[in-house]
Structure of precorrin-2 dehydrogenase:
Amino acid sequence: MAYFPMFVDLKEKECLIIGGGRVAYRKVCVLNDFEAKVTVIASKICDKIRKTESVRLIERDYEERDLEHQTLVIAATDDPVLNHEIAETCKTKGIPVNAVDQIEDCTFIFPSYIKEQNLVAAFSSSGKSPVITQYLKDETKTVLNEPLGELTELLGSVRAEVKQAVEGEENRKQVYRKILEMFLEQEELPDRKQIDKIIEKYRKKS
Ligand SMILES: C[C@@]1(CC(=O)O)C2=NC(=C\c3[nH]c(c(CCC(=O)O)c3CC(=O)O)Cc3[nH]c(c(CC(=O)O)c3CCC(=O)O)/C=C3\N/C(=C\2)[C@@H](CCC(=O)O)[C@]3(C)CC(=O)O)/[C@H]1CCC(=O)O
Ligand SMILES: NC(=O)c1ccc[n+]([C@@H]2O[C@H](COP(=O)([O-])OP(=O)(O)OC[C@H]3O[C@@H](n4cnc5c(N)ncnc54)[C@H](O)[C@@H]3O)[C@@H](O)[C@H]2O)c1
């Protein structure tokens, strides 16, 4: 069964990671990247997590009450019985849960991803092979790079203006495509003058 890629707003949302080892650290980095409020509860928390900024650390064993008010929970201990128990409790409480050692216990899984500002690509093998998704991520980095992230921001910033000035979805699509083509051809961001010229060509006659 393939998993549906749902893009979720995690900004300022309370996310709990139970476990503080190598795998927990990876999840901390991902959730930080998407501006979540991360708490780690573990009997022993590794140095890499300790050194990560803006993570709340609680160094003790997990207790069921830790799940209160959490948007997402990740069971990342090295105890499969405990991870399973955490997942079951989350399911009864309706909290989305990821158990790092048993995909059957997960209500969501983590992808490999690339992020350049608001531009995000995510790859999943539905648990079949993270090595394949890592490979895909690395290959895609040559296309989804920093300048493309910047172009995405630029297109986003002219969106309202284009919607107002250009009539019809097909024409607006052409405007964005022309800006993209220009960027690919000249290998740098089009300037304001170049963008104005393209918008002008498609501007509605009033
Ligand atoms: C994508 C990534 C995101 C992240 O972790 O944030 C991620 N795993 C990554 C790396 C990775 N994980 C493993 C290896 C060793 C090689 C290998 O086993 O293949 C490597 C490679 C490495 O370490 O470099 C081992 C492993 N993984 C899982 C188990 C448990 C099991 O299979 O039962 C075991 C132990 C297996 C064993 O004991 O043999 C399970 C899961 N791992 C997932 C995600 C979810 C499915 C994603 C999907 O395939 O769609 C899922 C189901 C749950 C979840 O974690 O959400 C991240 C790449 C980040 C990046 O670089 O981009
Ligand atoms: N999903 C993935 O990508 C992936 C990849 C490799 C391994 N794994 C699985 O992830 C598991 C964790 O791996 P790791 O390398 O991070 O392990 P680890 O040994 O580095 O860390 C385990 C953590 O769990 C904590 N812990 C144990 N019992 C606890 C309790 N009762 N309450 C709170 N914290 C507790 C420990 O203090 C420690 O911080 C492994 O068992 C493995 O099966 C998952």
Q: What stands out?
A: The pocket of nicotinamide-adenine-dinucleotide (ligand 2) is lined by residues 18-24, 41-44, 61-62, 76-79, 82, 100-101 (CB under 6 Å). Residues 14-110 form a domain with the Rossmann fold fold (CATH 3.40.50.720). The chain is about 45% helix and 15% strand. The CA atoms of residues 111 and 124 lie 5 Å apart.
